[in-house]
Amino acid sequence: MPAVVSFYLDVDGRRYPRPSDYAPRIEHLFRLVRRAAEHHEPHVATVLEADLARIADWLGRDLDRSTTRGVAAFSASAQGFFEVFELSLPVRDQAVVGAGPDVAQLVAILAASQPALLVAVDRQRSRMLRVLFDEVEELEAPIDEIPRQVDTDVELGSFEHRHEEFTRKHLRRVARAVVEELRHHPAEHLVLSGSRETVAQLEAYLPQHTLVLLSGRIDLPTSRRQADLARATNELVQQTHRRRQLGLAKELRDRAIQGAAAVTGLTATLDALSDQRIETLAVDAGFEAQGGRCRDCDALVALGERCSRCGGTVVPVENVVDAAITEAFTHHVGFELCERDDLADLGHIGAFERR
User: Is residue 15, in this structure, part of any structural domain at all?
Assistant: First the structure.
């Protein structure tokens, strides 16, 4: 059976300013891999040493900590496989040896990522910002300078009519730019900023498939600092995401009580996962549990339990929750990461089953 080393390391410069600050943790993780090798055939230890050497070489030579706070590396030297992800968020230190990559932390980061497109608009200008946590990118956005009445020989009434038409053309251009941006770079949230009247006019020009992304509005002018716009956007996105988490936890709780295609608790959830009955897996952030994997049918089981599918021999798994998240990802099962203890009364884990 091939052995893959999954290696996660927190390199956040705010906590670890120098490489020497996290070097002892690298050695600790490497010792865990070597300890895991003791449970495999002798030749596996040699292969794992090659994996560790490759990871160490990359950390010493290629790691750029200017924008990286977390590293996820996956290595299987016997198969010529090596992949590294430099992440803008810190990760939990972890080293796992398994038959495939343990991507649970990457899946959790993806679930927590809520990319937003902020569109700040007034009657002549607009700004578009792509916002994800503390990463902000300002995009090109339409600006239409409306002629001043003093620069024309048009009468006042006619000028005001032309002014309104200029504004409508400008907002239509902004709406087209928003649709095009979301087509090329999808976002989870759309946030609009500006006066109530102008924002309402812009909404009228946005198609329904774009409006479904609308998470809310903020009342900041286009002239505000980028940091202020991004901060207000993140706050609104977090509020929207939190409401979604609470709603999901309530729905899972209600459906479990009613027996309506939902399971809760570690054992029932792992059984449903093994039987491929799960549509969406939900887990509390930080939830960990020991367990095992059946050597014969590959099913995951809670600690101390036998395989309910075939009764085969169970091999220990240090964190069966991470293994379940990885399994769900591998089989294209949806995943929702809840706040810590949102699902405490349900055993910290549950799932919506396919109807």
Answer: yes
pLDDT of amino acid 149: 46
Could you tell me the CATH number of the domain that includes residue 220? 3.30.420.60
Residue-by-residue DSSP string for 253-320: HHHHHHTSSEEESHHHHHHHHHTT-EEEEEEETT----EEEETTT--EEETTPPPTTT--PEEEES-H
Q: Is the Cβ–Cβ distance between 7 and 53 less than 8 Å?
A: no
The closest alpha carbon to 299, from 314, 281, 277, 319, belongs to: 314
Tokens of residue 199, six digits: 């924002």
Q: Please list the residues that pair with 349 across neighbouring strands.
A: 283
Quote the tokens at residue 309.
Answer: 């599918």
Pairing relationship of beta strands 94-98 and 4-10 according to DSSP bridges: antiparallel
**Backbone torsions φ then ψ of 214, nearest 5 degrees:** -65, 115
pLDDT at 148: 57
78 and 129, same domain (yes or no): no
Whole-angstrom distance, CA of residue 64 vs CA of residue 240: 33
| pLDDT confidence bin for 286, thresholds 50/70/90 | very high
Q: Are 159 and 134 in the same domain?
A: yes
Helix (H, G, I), strand (E, B) or coil at 6: strand
CA distance 333 to 276: 9
Instruction: Give a yes or no: residue 13 inside a domain.
Output: yes
Q: Give residue 42's domain range.
A: 4-102
Total number of domains constituting the chain: 3
CA geometry: angle at 323 spanning 319 and 324, to 5°?
Answer: 115
CA distance 176 to 142: 10
Residues 127-184: tens digit of each pLDDT: 999 999 889 999 999 998 766 544 455 454 564 667 788 899 999 999 999 999 999 9
For the chain, helix, strand, coil in percent to 5 are 45, 25, 35
Q: Where are the alpha helices (DSSP H) in 62-206?
A: 104-112, 156-184, 196-205
333, 272 Cβ separation under 8 angstroms: no
Joined tokens for residue 140: 């090109």
| Mean pLDDT of all residues belonging to the chain | 92
Specify the pTM.
Answer: 0.83
d(CA 212, CA 68): 33
